[in-house]
Write a structure and sequence with these properties.
There is one protein chain. By secondary structure, this protein is an alpha/beta fold. The protein has one domain: Rossmann fold, CATH 3.40.50.1110. It contains 9 helices and 9 strands. Helix 4 packs parallel to helix 6 and helix 5 crosses helix 8. The protein starts with a strand and ends with a helix. The mean pLDDT is 94.
Amino acid sequence: MKNKVAIFMLFGQSNAVGHAMPMKEEDIIEPLSNVWGLNREPNQSFDTERLKFSHYTSYGMNLAETQDNTYSVANQLARAWQAEIDSGNKAGLPDLYIIHIAIGSQGLFGMWSMNRERRLIPGKLGDVDISLYPFTVHILQLLRKHLDMCDLEPEFVGLHWRGGEQETRYLLDSLRVELKPAYKRFFAGLREAIGYTVPVVLHRLPFKDVMLKEDPTGAHLEAMEYINQVFDELSTEQEATTTFEPKNCPFYDEYAWDKNIFRWDLIHYTGEMNTWVANTILEDFIKRRASQE
């Protein structure tokens, strides 16, 4: 019988990175026993022929941008998953593989573009330059080989897309008609690379007052609502595709200046928000497994 392994993928831009949210020293995650990740050192290359998973830490595990020890959803899920197993649920939860690929300010018309030639310059935001789509396809193809070689049966937590903000500026330039077909091709290509119909989870974009300050006409906010509409349509039209609504956070406050979920810049989520998202993802996975037994 094959051993089961859970797989969580987090792709996107700055809110997938956990941008500018450095952990307190006591929260830095040292190697976890039951959570595994892909360290940049041996895996961040188009020449890699075999993935090398290692015990998960909060540093070095984003295969794209170099910004470590942040309160990202990936790091917070790793912590919650290990805590759940340590609490006595070891027989219930399988080990978790995390694949984290994200760069701030990059979307389908930036470094995630499907038409970009292969390029891989590692580094911090501002220096990093990676053709993210072909690189992610490469990693997912290697993941399929790894699962087969190690005789592992995957249970997909999901492929979570935390992006879309970058597209607002392009939608102002009449690229709307291209957005939905582009997303369809994008996720179809990633699923083909891994060889499974992975559940895709699209994180909707919540209203940001800061955008009204930048553009009093409201055009950026209207573009954001259009992106949410595309996400909603994809969730009803595409197999195994759902949306994640940040406004469902119990401490979300529509009337608060920061909605109680954004940092001072009103763009990036707080660590508390990302912790809630991670815990919600874990709870949903546990419920889904229970319903299938």
